[in-house]
Amino acid sequence: MRFLDTTLRDGEQTPGVSLNPEQKLEIAAKLAAVGVDVIEAGSAAASEGEREAIRVIANAGLSAEICTYVRALHEDIDLAADFGADSVHLVIPVSDLHIAKKLRKTREQVADMAYDAVEYAKSRGLIVELSGEDASRADQQYLREVFTEGVKRGADRLCFCDTVGVLTPEKVADYIPPLARIAPLSIHCHDDLGFALTNTMAALKHGASCAHVTVNGLGERAGNTPLEEVVMALEVLYGYTTRIKKEELFKLATLVSRHTGVPLPINKAIVGEMAFTHESGIHAHGIMREPATYESIKPEMVGRKRRMVLGKHSGSASVEAALAEMNYHPDENQLKAIVNRIKKLGDAGKRVTDTDLMAVAEAVLAIECRPFIKMRQFTATSGSHMIPTATVTLMVNGQEMTGAATGDGPVDAAMQVLRKCVADVADIQLEEYHVDAIRGGTDALVDVTVRLSKDGKIITSRGASTDIIMASVEAMIAGMNRLLREEHEDRGKNPR
Ligand code: MN
After folding, report:
1. Hey, what CATH topology would domain 277-364 get?
2. Measured in angstroms, how far is the CA atom of residue 219 from the centroid of ligand 1?
3. For 198-216, how does the pLDDT look when each residue is reduced to its tens digit (9 = 90+)?
4. Fewer Cβ in 10 A, N or C end of the chain?
5. How far is the CA of 240 from the centre of ligand 1 (A)?
6. Considering the entire predicted model, what is its pTM?
7. Ligand 1: distance of its center to the CA of 136 in Å?
């Protein structure tokens, strides 16, 4: 089973996405390391930047074959060869709709263009994957003729493109086997009706030997078939071992999300934030006894960790486990009281952060803790002709610290200055920042949740205020206190 990853071509055609050559190289290197066979690095005819990216990637000595998208034009093929690609994804429209309406040509003219382009690309030393655009709406007899003659003229491989996502597994069973007998066949699916993965799997079953995929399913409109989903479906559901380094899939997903600016949907299979997160009491209880009860994939398989979050669905077992991890050991009645308070927070529509749990636990257990960090003074300024700046005075473990920082905006400046002030005692990273406005209006209460990490430990905390900057600062200080107290203070454990 082979994988052609087109994150850098079809994925980049996601509206609003544009990658520069350095970002493309970083993603290509990661794709090669993860083990994809072919990287479609771009479209050489598109722009100078695209050509530069193809040149840089082709020269990087990656283990994958480097491919570029070309039309059936000599100038496109020349660019592919001149900029160092190993292969071309040579795309010709094959449906009458595309042939007549888009190209305003006849079937014969298009077929001749295809054969000429195949021969020319071979004369330039390129591997040729001859690809039928809109193949799922084409006359299949015509498509077979073009593919058969194309292979005679030198095409090495073929590709069936479901360009607008209208294929079904039934059509796949009909269309794919005769084509797969002509030459090695790839399947390229789009997710307009949510069928991309299903159709890709069906095509692999019916003779296709290569899946065109993108990381996180990026791609035009609703996107392409996601790499991570095909790999895991093959491995988990069909017992097929791929050559993909599965434990790197999540890192790859995060890298692509960061560079493209397209956030991962929280409920996305395999790589979404909630894919391995549990809240509900009964499920969480089952998971703690035996993870297989509510997990079909072990999170470690794809380089992730299971996460338990607390809310109104949480049962006492999950709360107790979360408390034990923080070193609190309540007795039965105390636990009951803590669980009730957690459920109340959940019922009020709040997500329960680690600092919430900590505050509740300490209130119930009557533990008194001096905060490690206390704020004395805080100012943030921004305006039309100035760089946003924040200054702060903190008491950090009894010592007064004053600092200033600039940022992309006043909130960013505030986050920077807080991190700077505690940098001497700890390297704390802001992993995620989330704002909820509680009801409309500019006077609304703003609820900020932050996720902070320090040496691999991750915690969440919250701040609430009508002032978004103060809510952010409050969330940040609460979270930093939570991360720092553990190592700097005896927490007044309550031994059982
Ligand atoms: Mn496509």
Report:
1. Recoverin; domain 1 (1.10.238)
2. 7
3. 999 999 999 999 999 999 9
4. C
5. 26
6. 0.79
7. 12
